[in-house]
Specification:
The protein is α/β, with parallel strands linked by helices and about 290 residues long. Helix content is about 35%, strand content about 20%. The longest helix is centred in the middle third of the chain and has 19 residues, at about 125-145. The structure holds NADP nicotinamide-adenine-dinucleotide phosphate. InterPro entries: NAD(P)-bd_dom, NAD(P)-bd_dom_sf.
Length: about 290
């Protein structure tokens, strides 16, 4: 495990009042197709980022795929603190140290789409990692002076193929229910995302909301491209087999949306404790290239 740290904490150039204070955000899964956008967009907006990654080199390479030479730009990566570890196997005390001082935790973990990622352990990568993170937040914030620290925001990336465990979704067609039931049994990543959503739906009975608030963001079909304006729904609005014609969202938009949740308290208040679904707005303007 290794880490590099350039700690800068003052105020960012963001304009709205709830966004003016520079935040510190832990991103897990930052080397992924979505996580890299979260890391880069946060850094570009001059927030401090902690990232737990299995390979710092891979993280830097991924940042460069979004914005060439960003990984060698001290104005961007100067606020990035990386820890090389597999979060799944990380000692809990190490995790607590990394969580300590963070305003929010963003989880973009997912199983790699190869034989190892699909069929071999850790089968509960997302669920176990989320559980560890919630415990770490609980411990760290229970040590903080009561009332002095706002609850840490925990955002987990899921999918609109995963049902709201609180029962808020419309009943799907029989063919979709059969397919999803098969996926739960046969596909470890899908079962893991379901288990993680289920865990989050009842986490408030384990971690008091005075210490942690949460939401699970469920993107619809993911595509690559620039971030655009987006629409948020309280449940899936399209069928399982509709494809991108029923709605899609870019990974950069998903990143933007998660960052908006971190920075905009009004938005957070509307959606915390829920499982919002995000789509790119039809014909929406590009907001981040
Ligand atoms: N709504 C949709 O249509 C949709 C589509 C795709 C995904 N999703 C969900 O969204 C989430 C993120 O998707 P994505 O496509 O951005 O993910 P991704 O590109 O596959 O990235 C996965 C991330 O998880 C990390 N990871 C994988 N196995 C790990 C392990 N054993 N230990 C530690 N880290 C590990 C990877 O790190 P390394 O770089 O080290 O491997 C990477 O950072 C997933 O949960 C996925 O199920 C939703």
């Amino acid at each position: 495990m290794s880490s590099s740290n350039l700690d800068v904490s003052d105020y960012s150039a963001d304009s709205t009042s709830s966004q003016t204070k520079r935040k510190r955000i832990l991103v897990v899964g930052g080397t992924g197709q979505t996580g890299k956008h979260v890391v880069l967009q946060l850094l570009q907006r001059r927030h401090n980022v902690r990232a737990i990654v299995r390979s710092k080199e891979r993280l830097y390479n991924q940042l460069d795929t979004v914005l060439p030479d960003s990984a060698s730009n001290i104005h961007i990566v100067g606020r990035l603190q990386t820890t090389e570890a597999s979060i799944h196997a990380m000692p809990q005390e190490e995790l607590e140290k990394i969580v300590d001082g963070c305003d929010a935790v963003v989880v973009c973990l997912g199983h790699n789409l190869n034989f190892r990622g699909l069929f071999l352990p850790p089968r509960r990568l997302v669920t176990d990692s989320v559980q560890k993170l919630c415990s770490a937040i609980d411990v760290v914030n229970s040590n903080a002076l009561e009332g002095k620290k706002p609850p840490t925001k925990m955002i987990v990336m899921g999918s609109d193929g995963v049902a709201d465990p609180l029962g808020g979704d419309d009943r799907r067609k029989l063919s979709e229910r059969v397919t999803l039931s098969l996926l739960s049994r046969l596909l470890i990543p899908h079962a893991d995302n379901e288990a993680a959503a289920s865990y989050m739906s009842s986490v408030s009975s384990v971690v008091p909301t005075s210490r942690m608030e949460w939401l699970v963001l469920r993107p619809t079909d993911l595509v690559n491209g620039s971030a655009t304006k987006y629409d948020m729904f309280d449940k899936p609005t399209k069928g399982l087999f509709d494809g991108t014609k029923g709605g899609k969202t870019t990974r950069a938009t998903v990143a933007q949306c998660m960052i908006d949740f971190v920075l905009t308290d009004e938005l957070w208040e509307s959606w915390k404790g829920k499982f919002p679904v995000v789509h790119d707005s039809m014909g929406g303007d590009v907001i981040v290239k």
